[in-house]
Amino acid sequence: MEGGFHLGHDEQEVRDNVAQLAQRGVAYITVAHLFWRGVATNAPALPFMPDWLYGLLFPQPQQVGLSPLGRAAVNAMVDHGILVDVTHMSERAMMDTLELLDERDPRRQVP
Fold first, then answer.
1. Is the dihedral of CA 35, 96, 15, 109 positive or negative?
2. What is the pLDDT of residue 16?
3. Which segments of the chain have a pLDDT < 70?
4. What is the distance between the alpha carbons of residues 94 and 111, in angstroms, rounded to a whole number?
């Protein structure tokens, strides 16, 4: 599935929907997709557009990687064995994701 913004409007809805997607066999979710939609900041995604113009037309917060909805999504994905696809994430969002995964498993052990 592409776009974590599809998962819900609040953290509980995100957790519930990720659980339901896992039950239905979803293997991975691309958390960021194309534009800032309140979940994870993204890397410029339109190859025909220079990065500076993309940033001007599609602004996003500079100090955000994962929003609370993004954190809820990543946590729920880990809980339910869904792969976290970091494709399209900004560097900040990727770092937030990796830090969250390290928080969850500081010894980096596979269950």
1. positive
2. 97
3. 110-111
4. 22
Measure CA 101 to chain center.
Answer: 12
Contact status, residue 88 vs residue 43, Cβ threshold 8 Å: yes
Three-state SS annotation for 62-103: CCCCECHHHHHHHHHHHHCCCEEECCCECHHHHHHHHHHHHH
Block residue for tokens 């010894």: 107
What single-letter amino acid sits at 83? Answer: L
What is the reported pLDDT for 85? 95
**80-104 burial string, b = 16+ CB within 10 Å, else e?**
eebebbbebbbebbbebbeebeeee
| DSSP secondary structure, 12-67, as one string | HHHHHHHHHHHHTT--EEE--BSB--SSB-B----TTS-HHHHHHHS---TT-SB-
Burial class (CB in 10 A: 0-12, 13-18, 19+), 24: exposed
User: pLDDT at position 68, please?
Assistant: 96
